[in-house]
Amino acid sequence: MMKDxxxxxxxxxxxxxxxxxxxxxxxxxxxxxxxxxxxEEGGAVAIRANTxxxxxxxxxxCSLPVIGLYKQTYPxxxxxxxxxxxxxGAVLSAGAxxxxxxxxxxxxxxxxxxxxLLERIRYMHPKAIVVADISTYxxxxxxxxxxxxxxxxxxxxxxxxxxxxxxxxxGLVQRLAALKKTPVLxxxxxxxxxxxxxCFEAGAHAVVVGxxxxxxxxxxxxxxxxxxxxxxxxxxYSAK
Length: 240
Ligand SMILES: CC(=O)N[C@H](C=O)[C@@H](O)[C@H](O)[C@H](O)COP(=O)(O)O
Description:
- By secondary structure, the protein is of the alpha/beta class.
- The protein contains ten helices and eight strands.
- It has helices spanning 3-10, 29-41, 52-61, 85-93, 114-124, 137-145, 170-177, 193-201, 211-214, 216-239, and strands spanning 13-18, 46-50, 66-69, 98-102, 129-133, 150-152, 184-187, 206-209.
- The chain has an eight-stranded parallel β-barrel, surrounded by eight helices.
- The structure holds N-acetylmannosamine-6-phosphate (LRY).
């Protein structure tokens, strides 16, 4: 499928992020590919997945397009989402149609500017659809001006200078989508159906939901916390 058709396929849909790091209970490509199949059965339009291993396994079992990334940390940089050409190449070789790349203003491990990295991606991987993961409006505008294919609000709240909040950054989605230049994915801390719908109202091209669907330990915590709050309230009340 051509780039535009693939981007169009995401429109008004739910992208499910199926990620588990090594220290998480669901770590492993078998489990992540089962998650992806479940998301496909549920009607997701695409999968967001981390590591070449997971992407390959997902591609074998699931027919949806994949937004691939490869989290890697380098000692000289805070950029960890598909930071260099090495990880970008690995994600694309694994079969991802889209590659998500950190496009924040933070210094990159290879010393390149995002603009230079994008030029290299375009040259080396002309078919790749580039998703720029940004944390602020200014970074989003900059990425759009560089003609990335998609902008995603992934990093809002995860750079020290961006808006810090436990809620999704729907305002950022709204401001970027209003430019009507590049499709905007709403991503990060989307927990409820209402928040998801608000992202579409704000002009999102698609909504990416991860933790709220695929991290059961966090889903459990949410219930347990609410129960604890309720129990505390109940015991305060009965003590009176
Ligand atoms: C900041 C960062 O590293 N975000 C990562 C990007 O791929 C993932 O850990 C998130 O799960 C993903 O963005 C979806 O977000 P949420 O899980 O909040 O729905």
